[in-house]
Amino acid sequence: MTRYFQWHASPLGELLLAASDRGVTDVHVGAGKYVPAIPRDWLEAPRNPLLLQLQRELDAYFAGRVHRFGVPLDARGTDFQKRAWAALAEIPYGETRTYGEQAAAIGRPQAARAVGAANGRNPIGIVVPCHRVVGADGAMTGYAGGVDCKVYLLKLEGAL
């Protein structure tokens, strides 16, 4: 399966965007913790329609005009990770949840730590909003893009 990528400027710095023919596979903050090395078989594709749609939606999100993304997704992960990421997508713009609340939402109330690990491996940051999950005490716990980026995104959404 071919993946296409490009870099996109944002208020957080450069974002690495990637997509398959089915949907977006990756959105990573360039300075983030889990930015993958770009595999040799990924093709740079500045005119890819999915990546162009994603760029428009990200720009509108950062301008405060988009609260939910419509670009198709093609997330790669385990079944548990995909369930955790689906629960992230249900957290409304401008709201936060705790890891425990997210674990309960997927029917695994004792799995808050596993949910945290799944969130940390979310390959489609911002679009799949793992930044909306906070510690049980409201603390700004880890974020693959960096805690500063998490705080920025939550302030942008009015959650802080």
Explain what you see:
This protein is of the alpha/beta class and about 160 residues long. It is built from five helices and six strands. The protein has helices at about 50-60, 80-90, 100-105, 110-120, 145-155, and strands spanning about 5-10, 15-20, 25-30, 40-45, 95-100, 135. The strands form two sheets. Strands 3-2-1-4 form a four-stranded mixed β-sheet, covered by helices on one side. A two-stranded parallel ribbon has the order 5-6. Helix 3 (about 100-105) crosses helix 4. It is globular, with a radius of gyration of 15 Å. The termini are far apart.
In short:
With 160 residues, the chain is α/β, with parallel strands linked by helices.
**Widest β-sheet, arrangement of strands:** 3-2-1-4
Average pLDDT for all residues: 93
Low-confidence stretches: none
Counting DSSP H or I runs of 4 or more residues, the number of helices is 5
Structural class per helix/strand content?
A: alpha/beta
The helix/strand order is EEEEHHEHHEH
User: What is the number of strand segments?
Assistant: 6
Portion of residues within helices: 25-40%
Largest sheet: 4 strands, mixed
The geometry reads as globular
Beta-strand percent range: 15-25%
Q: What is the gyration radius calculated from CA atoms? A: 15 Å
Terminus-to-terminus distance: 40 Å
